[in-house]
Write a structure and sequence with these properties.
This protein has helices at residues 2-33, 51-56, 127-136; strands at residues 36-40, 66-75, 83-86, 94-98, 113-125, 148-161. With 166 residues, it is an alpha+beta fold. The protein starts with a helix and ends in a 5-residue tail after the last strand.
Length: 166
């Protein structure tokens, strides 16, 4: 009888060690998963488009959902409601907003690599709205009347990698 109790104790402790080992593996995976942060919808199977090429001929992708990759150089400093994505190694890119204002990115997203899915869009901003965006750091060129026309990208889903993870 005494041996049986000891066996149960060993089994219980053995299960405890296995549980600890399992938890350690999950924790290690969670730490590496923190290198990639997702926002919005999961990225689907839209065609991957080279951002630099797309900026040369956006009309070719009008109304089509595409996947872009690049580097975030700026994000809205107030709440992360937009970011600027540039092709790797480039100085200028495209401003990205988020579908239905449904999610945001961290305000410290600059220097992260990004992969996003969405559609290109053209907007005309009033002088008031253009001034507001420029004050937040958006690179807009205003028309002579103070309005601004902008080509942007509306993302339905975003993946951000820490600079070290890519």
């Amino acid at each position: 009888m005494r041996l049986l109790k000891k066996s149960r104790h060993v089994l219980c402790c053995g299960a405890g060690i296995g549980a600890w080992l399992f938890a350690a593996v999950l924790l290690a995976h969670a730490v590496s998963a923190q290198d990639v942060v997702t926002h919005g919808a999961m990225i689907g199977d839209s065609p991957v488009v080279n951002l630099e090429d797309a900026l040369q001929d956006v009309d070719a992708y009008s109304g089509e959902s595409v996947i872009l990759k690049g580097t975030v150089v700026k994000a809205c400093p107030v709440k992360g409601c937009w970011m600027e994505l540039v092709p790797n190694g480039s100085a200028r890119g495209i401003r990205v907003t988020f579908k239905d204002y449904g999610f945001f990115v961290p305000t410290d997203s600059a220097e992260r690599s990004a992969k996003l899915e969405g559609v290109f869009e053209s907007n005309v901003f009033s002088k008031h709205d253009a001034d507001h965006l420029i004050a937040e750091g958006v690179r807009l060129t205003q028309n002579s009347d103070g309005t601004a026309t902008e080509l942007s990208f509306v993302a339905s889903g975003v993946e951000l990698w820490s600079p070290a993870a890519r």
